[in-house]
Amino acid sequence: MPMAERPYIVGNWKMNGTRAMLSEARAIDRAAQRYMKVEVAIAPPFTLIHAVHREAEQIGVGAQNCFHGPEGAHTGDISASMVADSGAKFVILGHSERRIDHGESAELINRKIDSALEAGLRIILCCGESFETRDAGRAEEFVLDQLRASLPDISDAAERLSVAYEPVWAIGTGRTATTDDIAAMHAAIRGLLDEKYGPETSANIRILYGGSVKPENAREILSTPEVGGALVGGASLSAESFLGIVVGASETEDA
Ligand code: PGA
C-alpha cells in the first residue's frame, strides 16, 4: 500500500511525560503491530525521544520542534541533526502553541523546515486559524497564507512532508470542527499543494487533522475526504485512548 494512502496517526505528547510514561509508549508500540495498515507515531518531549526510540519496534518516533540552523552557540536549543541523532525520524513544526508561546513566524518555520530536511527528517507542518479569524470568515485565506509562507520550495521534499490542519480553537478544548469545515479546509490545502508541487507530487503529501481527536470521533473525522490522518494531543497520553483512535483509523475505507 503506498505510504500516502495509509492513515497516519501521530501522538503529540507536548510538554508531558517522564520516564514513567515509557510503559505507555511500549503498550502503543506493541498494539500498533496489530494494525499494520495504519502508520502510528509518537512525538514525545526531547528528553524521552531516545528512550522511546529504543522501545519502539513498530511506531515512528519524532520531535516537536528543532532549531533553524546548525549546531553552535545557542544555549538551550536542539538542532535538527541532533534530533535525528536521538533516533527521531520526523519533527512537528509550526504548531500553534509554538507560534503563540515563542512568537515563531512563518519565515522562521520555513528555515526550520529546511534544516530538518537537510538532517534527513520527515516533517509535519501545522497550520490553523483562531476562532476570531474563523468568525470573521477568513479561515481559509489565513491558513493558505500561513502555508504559502512556510512550505519548502524543493518539490522532492514533498515525499517527506505532511501538513496538519489544526484549528487553534479546537486544540485541547473538546471542540472539533465539523466534518464539512474539515473537508472544505483540506480541499483548499490540497488545491494549494497541487498548485505548488503539481498534482502527482502533492498526492504524496498527507493532510492530517488535529484538535480534540478522540476514540469517539476518530472514525468519522478520518473518513472525511482528504483527511489522511490525525495529530492527537491529549488523547495520545494514554495507550488506551490513543489505540482507540488507531482502531478508528483501521476501520476507514482507506486503511
Ligand atoms: P488535542 O491537541 O488533541 O489535545 O486537541 C492536538 C494538537 O495540538 O496537536
Your description of this structure?
- By secondary structure, the protein is an alpha/beta fold.
- The chain has one domain: Alpha-Beta Barrel (TIM Barrel), CATH 3.20.20.70.
- The protein has eleven helices and eight strands.
- The protein has an eight-stranded parallel β-barrel, surrounded by seven helices.
- β7, α10 and β8 form a beta-alpha-beta unit.
- α1 runs parallel beside α11 and α5 packs across α7.
- The model has no long low-confidence stretch (mean pLDDT 95).
- Bound molecules: 2-phosphoglycolic acid.
- 2-phosphoglycolic acid binds next to β8.
Which keywords apply here?
11 helices; alpha/beta; 42% helix; 255 residues; TIM Barrel; 8-stranded parallel beta barrel; binds 2-phosphoglycolic acid
Query: Any idea what the CATH superfamily is called?
Result: Aldolase class I
Largest sheet: 8 strands, parallel, barrel
Shape: globular
Count of distinct strands:
8
Bound compounds: 2-phosphoglycolic acid
How many domains make up the 3D coordinates? 1
